[in-house]
Amino acid sequence: MDRLIFSEAQIEFRNQFRKWVEKEVAPFHPQWEEDKQVPKAIWRRAGELGFLCPQTSEAYGGLGLDYMYNAIVVEELCRVGASGFAMSLHSDIVAPYIESFGSEALKQKYLPKSVTGECILAIAMTEPNTGSDLAAIRTTAIADGDDYVLNGNKTFITNGQICDAVLVAAKTNPDESHSGISLFMVDAGTKGFTKGRVLKKMGMHAQDTSEMHFEDCRIPKSQLLGDEGSGFYYLMEKLQQERLVVVLGAVAGAEAAVNLTVEYCKDRKAFGKPISKFQNTQFKLVEMATQVEVARHFVDRLLVSHVKGENVIKETCMAKFWTTDMLSSVVAECVQLHGGYGYMMEYPIAKAYLDAPVQRIYAGTNEIMKVIVAKQMGL
Ligand SMILES: Cc1cc2nc3c(=O)[nH]c(=O)nc-3n(C[C@H](O)[C@H](O)[C@H](O)COP(=O)(O)OP(=O)(O)OC[C@H]3O[C@@H](n4cnc5c(N)ncnc54)[C@H](O)[C@@H]3O)c2cc1C
Question: β-pairing, 224-225 with 181-187?
Fold first, then answer.
């Protein structure tokens, strides 16, 4: 079914981006999986072609477009399983914090280079002892003269090795809970900031998910984003968009898994006929295609509401847990329909199966999504 929510210009953008992904990203992704990171050169190339930070305003070198363009980018990357290229984290999650809450000097410093891909962004909230409970972070940023001094450890940080700057959540007042948290921009190479181990993961091997350490890391006060003590509230304000990234990717990933399984089942023969002719195979594929179609309609509605600036936090949390659960069950069923080949890494469905579970964990776990929805329902 045609998705009528996209304008002609957006459809053209999708065509251009899809062509580029098929030519310059997808064929090289298996090598990046081996390397455990995406090369910086491809970021520069994406910047050169105008694919990074489409929302960033023209004053800072961007195109000042709406979130529909970001949505196209995440869908197209997920369509080909390019799970290591964290463009969306850079463009849709970190850059908007800088543009919304940063001083003019911080915007000038980071945004133009984020648009060109010269500055790759990361965000460091999670710590070894806490993820869901952000207010319990222990990293501190204590004011000292014209500086803040950061101490603490972060983990599971996407773009952890290749980032040029990281947005760090730290406690400026360790005695406070939510209102003790502030956000800072820390440049790679700052004394006292070290990038730690690249973590060995179940899937998403091209993503350089890493630890980060801050030891008496001194940064000027001008690196504070917005107001001291407002960090938690800034993070909450932007979560709708962060979760939509995962939701859009989950639906696109599930659709891709169904499509490639349909092709496989038409091709593979058993008992003298294609396995797509068995009623069980047909029913499974029909059920999965239906789930994708239903999800797509709900998610497209959310996308339009988000672009209009509406508050769809409750519905986005619903979509986050439902679509990522759906993705996990779809890829598992698709592996089954591939038989033994589904278990072989040379088949894309095996990689999709390993990339899927984390969608239920990051950007707020699916359990936390239900906690939020329950609150919104007045329970
Ligand atoms: C590949 C990957 C990339 C990531 N990238 C980043 C990144 O770039 N930056 C960053 O800051 N973080 C990142 N994360 C971290 C991610 O956001 C956290 O892992 C996630 O928020 C969960 O936190 P946790 O791992 O500490 O789990 P915990 O918070 O310890 O949760 C463990 C379990 O307890 C459940 N639970 C916790 N609280 C409740 C509750 N109140 N009610 C019901 N159940 C609950 C959870 O749902 C989960 O099932 C990444 C993680 C991964 C795996």
Answer: antiparallel
CA distances (Å), origin 134, targets 33, 181, 197, 314 = 30, 9, 22, 20
* Fold exhibited by the domain 232-376: Butyryl-CoA Dehydrogenase, subunit A; domain 3 (1.20.140)
CA of 136 to the centre of ligand 1 (A): 13
Closest ligand 1 atom number to CA of residue 133: 29
Q: Which residue has the tokens 């940023």?
A: 141
- Closest alpha carbon to 148 in 185, 107, 198, 96: 185
For residue 2, pLDDT over 90 is answered with no
Q: Where are the domains of the chain?
A: 8-118, 122-228, 232-376
Name the residue of 129, 202, 365, 373 to mutate for ligand 1: max ligand atoms within 8 A of Cβ: 365
Handedness of CA 122, 128, 134, 139 (dihedral sign): negative
Could you tell me the maximum CA-CA distance found in the chain, to the nearest angstrom?
79
Choose which CATH entry (1.10.3810.10, 3.40.50.300, 3.30.565.10, 2.40.110.10) describes domain 122-228: 2.40.110.10
pLDDT at site 301: 97
Residue 16 neighbours by CB distance under 10 Å: 14
Domain 8-118 sits in CATH at 1.10.540.10
Q: Which two tokens stand for residue 360?
A: 């239920």
Sign of CA dihedral 68, 74, 78, 80: positive
pLDDT in tens, 229-274: 999 999 999 999 999 999 999 999 999 999 999 999 999 999 999 9
Mutation pick for ligand 1 pocket among 37, 209, 362 (CB with most ligand atoms within 8 Å):
362
Structure tokens at 311: 């508050």
Place of tokens 């251009």: 16
Q: Using a 6 Å CB cutoff, which residues line ligand 1?
A: 123-126, 130-132, 156-158, 201, 204, 209, 358, 361-362, 365, 367-368, 371
pTM of this structure: 0.97
Is 76 part of the annotated catalytic residue set? no
CA of 361 to the centre of ligand 1 (A): 6
